Amino acid sequence: MRSEPLIDAKLYDGITAHPQEVKVSRFGDALLLSQESGWSDRVNAALLQRLDGGRSSLRLGRTDVAGWRLILPETAADELGTLLGHQERYGRWIDRIGLVPALVVSALVTASVVGVGYLAPHCLAPHVPMSWERNVGGAIVGDFGKLRCRDAAGQRALEALVDRVSPGAAGGPNAIKVAALDVPVFNAAALPGGYIVVFKPAITETDPDALAGVLAHEVAHVQRRHVTEALIRELGIGALIRLFAGNVGANAEQIVSLSYTRANEAQADSDAIDMLKRAHISPQPTAQLFRRLSKEAPEFSAEFLNSHPLSSERAAKFATSFDPHARYQPALSRDQADALFDICRKKR
Ligand SMILES: [Zn+2]
Hints:
The chain is 47% helix and 15% strand. By secondary structure, it is of the alpha+beta class. Strands 4-3-2-1-7-6-5 form a seven-stranded antiparallel beta sheet, with helices on one face. A three-stranded mixed beta sheet has the order 8-10-9, with helices on both faces. Strand 3 (30-34) and strand 4 form a beta hairpin. Zinc ion binds at residues 217, 221, 260, 265, 268, 308.
């Protein structure tokens, strides 16, 4: 019989956005997680790592499962201490940005967590000012340097397309900044700080109506703060602060390939369908694109599929929103479409 005490904890499994209530106990050199439903899981202590966090909780991650988080009361550290080994004296991000600023940041984060009342990424994300993330997204776009497509007329057309699906989104203090990149992979991604990058094939191997659907989906990820939420889920709040402090390099790859929860993806699709409807753009080209991509050779669309699993249901969702009585308009004028097509063409 087990004599170890059961500790109440919250588990983020890295797949679903909502935490699950679990009971945690020590089981030899492993943690035993269980639920009243009878579900249980044993995690070897060697796979566990302490994460940066507030003083009021003990946060554990797994080295083998991205986004997996176990939030325990701080007192659990005593009971599980020997299992988890010794904690670093301060913590990596404190060493980077200095102890005093770290204490200030930590106090702010603790205050906001207590104020919001939840540690959940989807509760926290809307409270992270977009301006904090600007340097992260800007640095990643800047990293692409020469690959950035800079044709002025093409850029105007791309921005017009964003504005077409979400009127006003390309202006104002939280403006979405969209950039085309001359990278031969079908991809589009939302980055921190309201940046959206579109890779060349997503422009030249689609038509503007289908690209409108893809952009609308990414705009929804930005506006719903899914990007921030994914950052908190995958990196933890400590790493997020480290990012804001300017250490982007090591995480750039992870940020471009952030994965969203299924719920977030479904929401972005629904929002995109609504945006297309309001803009009087037919959803059919987007549905056809998704259908086509899901059948393409993996090397062609692997990256897009990684962050955006395409299924026949997703395509069908767009297709069924088609209204035969609607008066759909092209997403861009002929001139804009031509300019957009040439956005990555070098002027000489
Ligand atoms: Zn998505």
